[in-house]
Write a structure and sequence with these properties.
Blueprint lengths: L22 H11 L5 H19 L2 H11 L8 H30 L1 H20 L4 H14 L3 H10 L6 H26 L2 H4 L9 H4 L3 H17 L13 H18 L8 H4 L9 H29 L11 H30 L5 H13 L9 H32 L3 H35 L8 H18 L8 H7 L1
Helix pairs in contact: 2-5, 2-8, 2-11, 3-4, 3-14, 4-5, 4-6, 4-18, 5-6, 5-11, 7-8, 7-18, 8-11, 8-15, 8-17, 14-17, 14-18, 14-19, 15-17, 16-17, 16-19, 18-19
Length: 492
């Protein structure tokens, strides 16, 4: 169609013009011609996300013993207090860097952000394992959180590297890899910490692993991260590097039409909140999903910190008196179980119920399950090990179901050009909540051990009750007026 002056007019809802040399355009063309699932790209995403997440909570099984050996705590009941701040440092540091990393990814590409993040894991995770003082551990964990900005961009990347019908699978892979890493990481920490004591035939007291008893798990994770950094070579860039106002106008208009179609053809009541490309904070669909996601992340992180400290604490404090290796075994079983669930069960769940509808039942079941935890301290030996494995597996399955739903909601609430920043906002708030969680859980755990009697409930029951209340609050907020489930189901 010819416009005035002989120029070729761009159709209002036409196909976006391809730009030679633009990696985003090349990927769009490839996705148009190939309708299948991009298994290879998804595999690279899964590996990169897995290895970048391993350090986050790998320290929890041995953190109790590490703080004890660093001799910062004056009495046994204070170990949890100091351990909480080490666990919190990573998330608090990430709070300040997540939005800048999102802006960086939107401007310079997803791939450079991913590579820098993986390299930071290699360097600072290794240094953490070599920590000889409490403050060295704090600083190295903080730098790791500050420079590992992969979480927001990798979520955006997973939705951009594939066709629209495969986006839920892409987000599910990111969520599942992180969920698995958050249990396999502690398993690595549990099995490989203090190797000279656990495996004296392989590691001597005079070796580097004997002199630095918590270096081996960090070293192994850093090696895996270095391998995934090599895998980044084959990751295609998804960002469009061109300045075409017509293409951007088409993108914005297509996004409006897509949202309108998902709502059954109804015009949106408030264009400022739902289609604005300038002010994400006024997009209530996005912000409500982020806030709920943060609340459940607060619960999950506080749970893992508490579980790791409670499981290794002595029976006199109504702990389970497990070793770090026992905790590693429990978390490894949970990791394998979550992987099987995500690959074999979750796709059928999504097929029949959708990705969003199961989140409320999962939250209710998680709350009921956690109520039983304090009573596990009454069990012994075999029955304890069997039930604690089952409970941990179910808890992580419920958490994976909930976080996958909210990740999908966040990424379907915005257009591609906004996803880096939107996920940066999400990661910033989530990191703040996760930063508070270990510190608060450590303080609460220390308080509970000092107040086992004399209150309306034993200290351990109050501890798990307080953690459970976070999930209860999150569950209540999934109802109107805070969150509109019907609208979320239509949009997803």
């Amino acid at each position: 169609m010819m416009a005035a002056g002989g120029e070729v007019a761009v159709p209002l809802l036409g196909t976006k013009r391809r730009h030679d040399g633009c990696p985003g355009c090349r990927l769009d063309e490839a996705n148009k011609t190939s309708t299948g699932i991009p298994y290879l790209n998804f595999f690279y995403i899964w590996i990169v996300c897995l290895t970048s997440t391993l350090p986050i909570q790998s320290l929890f099984p041995y953190l109790y013993f590490m703080i004890r050996d660093l001799k910062i705590a004056k009495q046994e009941q204070d170990i949890g207090f100091y351990a909480g701040f080490v666990g919190a440092t990573y998330f608090l540091a990430r709070t300040f860097s997540s939005v800048p990393w999102g802006i960086f990814a939107d401007k310079y590409g997803r791939k450079p952000c991913i590579v820098i993040s993986i390299l930071s894991v290699v360097v600072f995770n290794t240094l953490f394992g070599l920590s000889t003082s409490y403050w060295m551990a704090i600083v190295t964990r903080g730098l790791l959180g500050l420079l590992c900005g992969i979480l927001g961009p990798i979520k955006a990347y997973a939705t951009e590297v594939c066709r629209k019908e495969h986006q839920a699978l892409g987000i599910s892979l990111v969520t599942s890899s992180r969920a698995i890493a958050l249990v396999i990481g502690p398993a690595i920490g549990g099995f490989l910490a203090q190797p000279a004591d656990k495996y004296p035939n392989l590691f001597s007291k005079e070796s580097i692993f004997g002199r630095f008893p918590y270096f081996l798990p960090s070293f192994v994770i850093s090696i895996l991260a270095a391998g995934s950094c090599i895998a980044c070579i084959w990751l295609p860039e998804t960002l469009h590097f061109h300045d075409d106002e017509k293409v951007e106008a088409i993108d914005a208009l297509e996004a409006q039409v897509a949202v309108s179609n998902l709502e059954g053809g109804k015009a949106k009541e408030d264009s400022d909140t739902d289609t604005s490309t300038k002010n994400l904070l006024r997009n209530w669909q996005l912000m409500s999903a982020i806030i709920l996601y943060c609340i459940f992340c607060l619960h999950d992180t506080a749970y893992l910190e508490t579980f790791s400290l409670w499981a290794v604490s002595s029976r006199k404090f109504r702990g389970l008196s497990l070793t770090s290796q026992d905790v590693g075994t429990v978390l490894a079983v949970s990791g394998v179980g979550v992987l099987v669930y995500q690959l074999a069960v979750y796709p059928f769940l999504v097929k029949y119920f959708g990705a969003i509808r199961p989140l409320r039942p999962a939250a209710v079941l998680s709350i009921l399950l956690l109520i039983t935890y304090p009573f596990l301290a009454n069990l012994q030996e075999t029955e304890l090990k069997i039930l604690i494995n089952i409970a941990s597996l179910l808890k992580n399955v419920f958490s994976a179901t909930i976080t996958t739903a909210f990740n999908i909601l966040q990424n379907t609430a915005v257009t591609q050009e906004q996803r880096g920043v939107a996920n940066g906002i999400s990661v910033t708030l989530m990191s703040l909540f996760k930063g508070v969680a270990p510190a608060a859980a450590g303080i609460l755990f220390s308080w509970a051990q000092k107040h086992m009697t004399g209150l309306f409930l034993p200290g351990d029951q109050i501890l798990f009750l307080m953690i459970n209340m976070v999930s209860v609050i999150g569950l209540l907020l999934t109802f109107k007026p805070f969150f509109n489930m019907s609208s979320a189901l239509r949009r997803s």
